[in-house]
């Protein structure tokens, strides 16, 4: 039984597009400064604690990647041109891109400033197919912003997100229902979202190196080994993902999180917290005039235990730097063995109020 047969009885067939801007922040900098075009651009502040926010494709050739320490990026690519991030510009362009999405469908789920899921099962523009919808949307983005985007088209979010990386940059790839198994089974297991280096090691010990290898395991065995995550692995190995595209409303929390390339101790997380705080703050500013009062630190251990710590300061954070400082301090409230390692870190803001109300009401804290 293939993936499509398994899901057809429980969920309607959807047409999902995952749109991912190509090296978004770096591409914006190259667009706005023609002298940077064709050169290795690294979007990051210089400094001991700085991390790479984005890297152009010319810099990626040298192994430079987002989230790595800026000093390491400089060693890998001494000729790199470092540019400070300009989140106000990135947010403005992101709004233009979202307006393009909404011309075609109301079912738009932004994941960040530079990527989103779209459900194009039915479109306002009466596109004949999801493939054509993706092509037109990418062309409109290029015309309006001067930037390229890649897209993955598939029956669900899981497959569409993987497919969007297939023809980067400036391309698109389609996984039709009949081609799910042909696309999915040969994939390296590391392509599955959530399977980081440590999980890859655990699965390799079971001789699981591809999604096809994983499919040989029964659900009960995976659940016994990995709990709820085991059930999710079982479903993904069969191309099953019934999550709908959920348009963003007023969020109870804005956050950014990353699965780390290698598991780290608490005292090694500062630079990652700083980088995620910048991303979270950029998303928070899109919520104005609503502002957040509570800082949240999220951690996931190597055995998939999730820990969250939060703090509501007397005065709300007013910058990404303040947010990072508070989130870093929250590590002191994690009661765990200092040698515990973490595979995921996240920084969030919650407790939203309207800034105009905050200005006239006395604090209740």
Radius of gyration over C-alpha positions, nearest whole angstrom: 21 Å
Q: How is the biggest beta sheet arranged?
A: 5 strands, mixed
Counting helices, strands and paired strands, the structural category is alpha+beta
**Strand content of the residues, in percent?**
15-25%
- Spans of 5+ residues with little confidence (pLDDT < 50)? 1-10, 356-365
Going by CATH, the homologous superfamily of the largest domain would be Reverse transcriptase/Diguanylate cyclase domain
What is the average per-residue confidence, as pLDDT, rounded to a whole number? 89
CATH architecture of the largest domain: 2-Layer Sandwich
Name of the CATH first level of the largest domain? Alpha Beta
- CATH topology tier name of the largest domain: Alpha-Beta Plaits
Helix content: 25-40%
Features:
four-stranded antiparallel β-sheet; alpha+beta; 15 helices; 365 residues; MutS, DNA mismatch repair protein, domain I; disordered N terminus; Alpha-Beta Plaits; DNA polymerase, domain 1; five-stranded mixed β-sheet
Describe the structure.
Mg(2+) binds at residues 20, 114. Residues 16-196 form the UmuC domain. One of its GO terms (biological process) is SOS response. This is DNA polymerase IV. Belongs to the DNA polymerase type-Y family. The strands form 3 sheets. The protein has a 5-stranded mixed sheet. It has a 4-stranded antiparallel sheet with strand order 9-12-10-11. The relative contact order is 0.12. A hairpin with a 4-residue loop joins strand 10 (290-301) and strand 11 (306-311). It has helices at residues 3-8, 24-32, 57-60, 70-76, 87-104, 130-145, 157-163, 180-184, 197-205, 211-215, 219-226, 228-236, 270-285, 320-329, 355-360, and strands at 16-21, 41-43, 54-55, 81-83, 108-112, 115-119, 149-154, 172-174, 253-264, 290-301, 306-311, 342-354. It folds into 4 domains: 3-23 and 88-181, Alpha-Beta Plaits (2-Layer Sandwich); 24-85, MutS, DNA mismatch repair protein, domain I; 185-236, 5' to 3' exonuclease, C-terminal subdomain (DNA polymerase, domain 1, Orthogonal Bundle); 253-360, DNA polymerase, Y-family, little finger domain (Dna Ligase, domain 1). It is an alpha+beta fold and 365 residues long. It is built from 15 helices and 12 strands. The termini are far apart.
